[in-house]
Amino acid sequence: MPERIAKVVVVGGGTAGWMSAALIRRVLGTQVAVEVVESETIGTVGVGEATIPPIHHLNAVLGISESEFLRETNGSIKLAIRFEGWRVPGESYFHTFGVPGRNHAFCDFQHFWARGLRLGQTRSLWDYDLNYLACKTGRFGRPRTQDPFLDVPYAYHFDSGLYGRYLRKICVANGVRRTEGLIADVLLAPESGHVRTLKLQDGREVHGDLFVDCSGMRGLLIQQKLDVPYEDWSHWLPCDRALAVPSERLPQTLPYTRSIAHRAGWQWQIPLQHRIGNGLVYSSRHISDDEATATLMASLPAPALAEPKLIRFRTGRVRDTWAKNVCAIGLSGGFLEPLESTSIYLIQSAIVRLLKLFPHEGITQALVDEYNAQSTLEYETIRDFIILHYHVNERPDTGFWQDVRHMAVPQRLRDKIALFRATGRLFQDPYDIFKDASWLQVLVGQGVMPADHHPIADAFAPDELARTLAEMAAAKAKGLEGFMSHDDYLAAVMRAR
Q1: Distance of CA 309 to CAs 44, 47, 293, 413, Å?
Q2: What span, in angstroms and rounded, lies between the C-alpha atoms of 32 and 8?
Q3: What is the pLDDT of residue 42?
Q4: Which residues are catalytic?
Q5: pLDDT category of residue 5 using cuts at 50, 70 and 90
Q6: How far apart are CA 413 and CA 394, in angstroms?
Q7: For the chain, what percent of residues have pLDDT higher than 90?
Q8: How far apart, in whole angstroms, are the C-alpha atoms of residue 334 and residue 313?
Q9: What are the beta bridge partners of residue 261?
Q10: Contact at 8 Å (CB) between 351 and 213?
Q11: pTM given for the model
């Protein structure tokens, strides 16, 4: 018979460990004991400094106000990512959290916009996007209406090290036990193969019923002890290294992340209140570590505050993120490069999934199978979205970009690109966190234009369509009224209590 879960042990601290402990404690309360085993001598990757809007749900569940969150993490507002040089050098576009235009019940906005282009309209897709207009002017504010047409979805940039420590403080105050120590051995139950005990170097033992592996890329429990196979996706996403370095802040704090294409990868710039987070993701088959370091340091927007940190990774995921009584959350379960800021989200989503399927009365194979099926779909849809950015490039300059342009991509992605290219239609995949508006912006930004549009868009006479599009663009621009500069907004929030 399955054994009732009375205690959860989280292996590893950092963002993944303390997010897991905080949510489990908050949702399950005292009915389940929670203990985190971590060691200050083990560093964390710590480059997940940009997020997507679901982080609001996490903060709401944990009872964290925006002002407190931004103060504790030196955070800033994120409205979008600006992709620079991804289609061709010298060109850029935005992937915002907003929705361009307004969709018809049976025909999405891009069909009206595409027909307008064929009739001589010149506005870009982003002229109908309030998030983009706010980015362009460096402003932010809350909409004064409940009309979703003028909604401004947003997320945050923040210092992930400060965030982990902040969550640890919340956890300890709420009764989560923290054990400092290095794990020397992991003991399995001989009859079931489940993890039963962690033996620490000083001889102490930590027992548990369910173990959450947040040990990072080592995968101490899921990979090293349970030997769950790892699916390597480097044939689709060949970047295998990153360099990270902070630099001094700039006078103006941008409300978006910058993603800058280079000859063998891409560079991120994440503006925080006290500094800028910088990094270069690259393929070691196409550029050496020394060349990559020189490229990054020469491209910093301000003087560096430290030496660059090298991170080696292998894109992919473990076949089963829940095996036996171990659930792998964060980098122990898989790695997708931070191109679309999904690292923190994947941690959050995995914890929420575990809580929805929590084995209160004991672990059953049905729960494990459902968890793994959902996790697989989520990882694969995010993977495909990241592959899209690389695959539809038109850069003529290096072997790296030519390799990813000509590679064979997953069938689901190939079909989605082909459908949009032919008809302009997009359809939401199950468990895809990126909605149709996100796919639309990246496809159009990368130069994939539909050859046709939905017949419903032809119902408008040319003059009527031109007037409707002009009114829509004007209404979006009017939505900026009352917005303040991003820095003024941050200053106002920081004063709030």
Answers
A1: 11, 10, 10, 33
A2: 7
A3: 77
A4: 78
A5: very high
A6: 18
A7: 93
A8: 10
A9: 266
A10: no
A11: 0.96
